[in-house]
Each structure stands twice: as C-alpha cells, then as structure tokens.
UniProtKB/TrEMBL annotation:
Protein name: RING-type E3 ubiquitin transferase
CDD domains from the UniProt entry: RING-Ubox_WDSUB1-like (cd16655), USP_STK_Ubox_N (cd01989)
Biological or metabolic pathway of the protein: Protein modification; protein ubiquitination
Key word ATP-binding present: yes
Organism: Miscanthus lutarioriparius
Amino acid sequence: MMLSQKSLFRDRVFVALPEEPRDGKSILSWVIDHVSDSAQIIIVHIVTSPNFESRQQILDCYLDQCSRKKVRAEKRVFLFTEIDEGLIHLINIYGVTELVIGAAADRHYRRKMKAPQSQTALSVMQKADSHCNMWFICKGKLVFFRKANYCLLTKSRSARPSCGVGNPKMDLQSLLQPNLEAKRLEYMYIKDMEIRKEIEAEISQQKEQTETLKEATLMLQNELDWYRYQWNKNANALQEANKQKHLLEHRISELDSVASYLGESMRASDSLVNSLKLEYSKVKRERDDAVKEARDMRMEKELTEPCAYGAMNSEFSLVELEQATQVFSSSLNIGQGGFGSVYKGFLRSTTVAIKILNTESLHAQSQFKQEVAILSRVRHPNLVTLIGASPEASALVYEFLPNGSLEDRLNCVNNTLPLSWQVRIQIIMEVCSALIFLHKHKPHPVVHGDLKPGNILLDANLVSKLSDFGISRLLLESSVTGSEAHFTTQPMGTPAYMDPEFFGTGELTPQSDTYSFGITILRLLTGRAPLRLTRVVQEALNDNDLHSVLDHSAGEWPLVQAEQLARIGLQCSELSRQKRPDLELNVWRVVQPMRKEAPSPLSQSFRSIFNESSRAVATPSYFLCPISQVVMRDPQVAADGFTYEADALRYWLDSGHDTSPVTNKTLSNRDTIPNHALRSAIQEYLRQNKLQELFSQG
C-alpha cells in the first residue's frame, strides 16, 4: 500500500534535474506535491564542463519554485565527465536512498510509457546500488518506480522481512549506515591515493624543472658576461663616434654656409626661369594664335577660290527663283527644317530643287558658303548635283530627285511602296562608296557631318545621293595631333546619328561619318527608329533571333547577308571611334560583292561594256543613257529631271516625240542643262578602269 500523496517523502529526497527548465520544472512539481511539510529537497545538477555560472541561474529558478510552495530546498552542482556516472557516484558516496530522476524529455512522453526512455535514466537504474529507491518522472507523471532492496544478506525470499516504505518497525537508515560508511571511506581512500600519486608526480616534475632552471641560469650568466663585454666595446666605439660627430657637425656647419649661398643663387635662377617660362608661354600663345589664324585664312581661301573642276555652274537671281517657285508657294514646299525650306521649282526649263536658307540663322551664311565650296569641289554619282546658287537669296539650286528622301521611303510617306531588300543593299553600297570618295578626297578629305536617311535622296531609278553639306568640313592636318580632323566648340548634327565622341570632344573626323553610317545600316535592316536600335539588334544577334527584328516589308531577307550587314552596322556604331572599321578596307569588301549575290530589280540597267582578260566589268546604271543604253559622253538633264546622252535625246525629240523617254509624260519644254558632275564622275570611272581609249574609240 502506497503512502498518501503528501507523505511519500518525509525526510530528505534527492532530485536530479536537467539543464532544460521546462522538463525540470515538471519533475520538481511532482516532487513538491509528494513531500511532507518537514521534508527537504536536495536539487542535484551534474555538469560535464566547468561552466558553472550559467547553470547557477537555472538552479535558482528551481529554488524559486520551491520557495513559492514553501518547501525547503537547496542546490548542489557536481562536475563529472558523464551525467550517469556522476549520479551513481553521488548515490554511493552520500548514501542516497530517495532519488527522483527524469524518465525522458517531456516531448517524448506517451501514455503507454512504462519504463525510462533516456540513456541516462536507464544507466542509473541498471548500475546504481540497490539500496536506493528511484522514481522516474516524465511530464509530471510517475512512469516507473524502482524499489530498493535493503535485505541483501537474506538468502531466502520467504525469510526476508518486509522492508517497504510502509514498515515503520525497522530503522532502514541504521541498517545501511555501516555499509554506506564503508563504501564512502573506501572511495575516499582511493581518491586520496590518486591525489598522492598526482602530488608525487608533480614534485618529480618540479625537481626536473628546477634542474632545467639551474642550467638556464648558468647559460644566462654566461650570456650576461658576454653582453657586458660587448657593452664596454660599444661604449668605446660610441666615444669614438662622438668625436667623429663633432668633426662632422663642424663640417656640416661649413656646408650650410655654402648651401645658403647656393640657395640664394638657385632662387635667383628660379626667378629667371619663371620669367623665361612666362615669356615662352606668351610667345607660344602668339605662335598658336598665328597658326590658327593662318589655318583659318587657308580654309577661307580653300572655300572661296575656284575649285579644281571649275567655278559654280550658274548663278540665279532672286526674281528667277520667285518665278520658278510661284513666289515660294506653299504648294511647292517639299521640305522644311532648321536650315530653311526646300521648294520644287521650274527654272530655265528644268525641274529643280531650291533650298532657301534661313537668313535669321547665325550659321546661314557659313552653311551657304560651305555647301557651295564642297559641292563645287567634289563630283560623284552618289552625291547630289549642285546646279547653281543665288547669293542674293541665300539659296542653292539642286537637281530634282523625284523619289524624295530615304527617311520618307522608310516611313512609306504618301503611301509609297516599301523599298525591297535588294534596293536597300544597293543603297548601303552606294552610300559606302560616296563616303569613301569623300574621305579620300585630295588635297583635303571631306566629312559630311550629318549623315542620316533624311539627307539621302533617291532619284527616279532609286539611285541614292548624299545631300545637305551645310555642316560638312574640309579637313586640314592638325599641327598638334598630326591627324586630319576639325575641332569645334559647338557640335552640330542630329543627336540620334551623331558620333558620341564628336558630341563630347568637338573633334569631327571621318570616323564620325562611320558611326552615322552604322546607324543608317541598322535602320535599313529593321525599319525601326534609331534610338536604342544598336541594343535591340545586338540582343537579337546574341539570341540568334535576328529574323525577328528585320523589316519584313522589304521582302524575305537572305539571313547570311542580313547578319553580315547587322554586324557591320554594330561595328560602325561602336562608341569608341578606335573600334570602328575602315570603310574601304573592312566594309566595302563585304558590301560590294552583295550587289552580285543579291541583284536588285534595277540590275537590268547595268551592262558590261568591255572584256579584259576574259573578265567583265559592270558599268553603273546611272552612267548609261536611258535611251541608247551606252555610256554617256555629254550627259544633259532634261525637263523630266532625268539625264540623257545629248545626241540620243536630240534624236528622240527630232523624231517627233514630246514625252519623257522614262516616264512617258509630256515634257514641258525641250531645254536641257549640262550635268557636269556626272560627266566628271564618268571620266574618272573610265580612267580608273583603263577604259579611256575604248571610250574615245566609241
């Protein structure tokens, strides 16, 4: 029969509590509920490392729990390598007869739990002496009770007296006391022997250390004697050094006087040098100003003197221009911009384009002179032909190109048909040819400076021609850098096509045109706006998806040529001009063969004019007369805006025709104007191809 709940523990009970307060408090609560008012709880905690400070706070929480229930309690902390071994030793040494210990962590509790689960609890239950009663608690519930066996000397089970908790006749403590005392003394003896051995070993070690110290002391004494000898030696050397020091100080004093004198001389020399530097800077500025002025005068002379090809063709009066444009009627206005306006006109029996520069613009006069100077000096089939000018009206008269600008054709203005991919490749080739011609021009290269689709015009045969040379420049070799460039503090042009380095530094070079040409190529490929166009094409190439960004209104692009052009466009539009390719060496060698690989619909106008070593040489279509289909010797611009061979056109008109041979529309008149620019280009082309003799014979 068990005792009542409040009298289970009447004297002293040991409680082994874990480090986790949640599990320990449930065990301690069970013990508090089963102790009598006179009983005392001994809280035992085993640690395996000498970190007592943090454990003391945990045990203080347990003491507070007992204090709140008004139960006497004290705490004891012991250091052992293993927790189960520590509890077993405590049972043996202190003669513990009542021990409460956790069966398992509270989270492992199960209703069917009938025995301890933790390894520590199992080890204590199996190895501890049998004189100790043990209660195994989990989550505040008694899981298992191991009853002590006090009658160890009795052999017969029937002769064993009842020694349970409920037998008050037998003094259990008095029976166990001798045995416990013997065990405690035996344990203390063993510990004393171990301590004695440790002390003897330590004494032996100290003797060895003493001998070692004696030897070290002797060595130190010898070293001290040696250092004392060295000190005396160094003291003598120091005394000698002091004597030398005094001598050197005296010498230094003398040198200081010399240095002072030399310093005054140096200051006088520095003053003279600074004066000479200022004089040199002044002279250099004057020289630079003179060089700049000379260059400006040279440029002015280059712009004003008659060109190598003859003076400007014609000079028109303001009255003639007003008559040609019906007093600049808005119905004849075909272009508008910051530079001024462009009108279609009928001048001296010829359809022309008349550009009226904005006289309010600060750059109007310089642009007028610049364009006249450039177009008077250069002749190329892919450059717009300057027919004449009117200084009185600040106007320029050009050949009329009926198909407008490339920008308008890309945007299909007035519902015009999209340009085919063959025509676009032809335009790229023609623009490249014109740029190479300008950049290699002698004696001074020419930079267009504002290349864009809006400044590329198309004639009736969709042949492209560069126009708007208002901000172009003849390049002079720089005396500073040795390279051909133009410097300005006010860069002009169209931002989306402008060379970033020109915009940042004001240095205009042929590579500036290369950048604009690259953006133009990408526009012809994609038909898209120029902003961020390079990034779009680069990403498409990286993803192997160029087809998705091509302008399919141009037809089915051949992907090989399209990819070649896309890579050329990206290379030309590199931010750094050093990374851009050379148009003649790198670009022309790629785009020129494309004309043969992908002939345009206009290729029928091309023909071979001679054989040399079994090799045919193709003649540009704009060198051939539309009537006779032979190379023109005397090209003349008719009233329909097309150029013909003079004899062929005269024969056409004398035969009774009053319509255009190309458009079949009625000609407004029979007058013609010589096309000097085309004539010069044909002669240069024939000379370069060694065809002059063949041409003369024809």
